[in-house]
Write a structure and sequence with these properties.
Layout (H helix, E strand, L loop, with lengths): L1 E6 L2 E4 L4 E9 L4 E9 L6 E7 L5 E3 L7 E6 L4 E6 L8 E9 L5 E4 L3 E6 L1
Parallel strand pairs: 2-11
Antiparallel strand pairs: 1-3, 3-8, 4-5, 4-9, 5-6, 7-8, 9-10, 9-11
């Protein structure tokens, strides 16, 4: 099993920045990619960004391109999400997730960290 723990959420004003971290532990060698998802109140969870743990290729949702950057520190089994130029619509619970090599699915999930952007 893999355990994921997010940190770095909080309250920020419009235009501000936050950096989220996600630390993985356990059977981390079984992971192939890590990503961030978010869920706003009353809405479905949506993909934000992902990074391949080998190679480092990244992908982003259109609504965060140019504002958010995902990065990794493989030695520390940690993934980061740098969020700049935050908007009120970025408010939500941000979840870290990891794909399992045997399935290719996001089988591992963290508990989430709250991000609130105020106007």
């Amino acid at each position: 099993q893999v355990q994921l723990v997010e940190s770095g959420g909080g309250l920020v004003q419009t235009g501000g920045s936050l950096k989220l971290s996600c630390a993985a532990s356990g059977r981390t060698l079984s992971m192939t990619a890590m990503g961030w998802f978010r869920q706003a109140p009353g809405k479905e969870r949506q993909f934000v960004a992902a990074i391949m743990l080998r190679g480092g290729s990244t992908s982003y949702a259109d609504f965060v391109k140019g504002r958010f950057t995902i990065s990794r520190d493989n030695a520390a089994n940690t993934v980061f999400l740098q969020m700049n130029s935050l908007k009120t619509e970025d408010t939500g619970v941000y979840y870290c997730a990891a794909t399992k090599a045997s399935t290719g699915n996001y089988d591992y999930w963290g508990q989430g960290t709250q991000v609130t952007v105020s106007s």
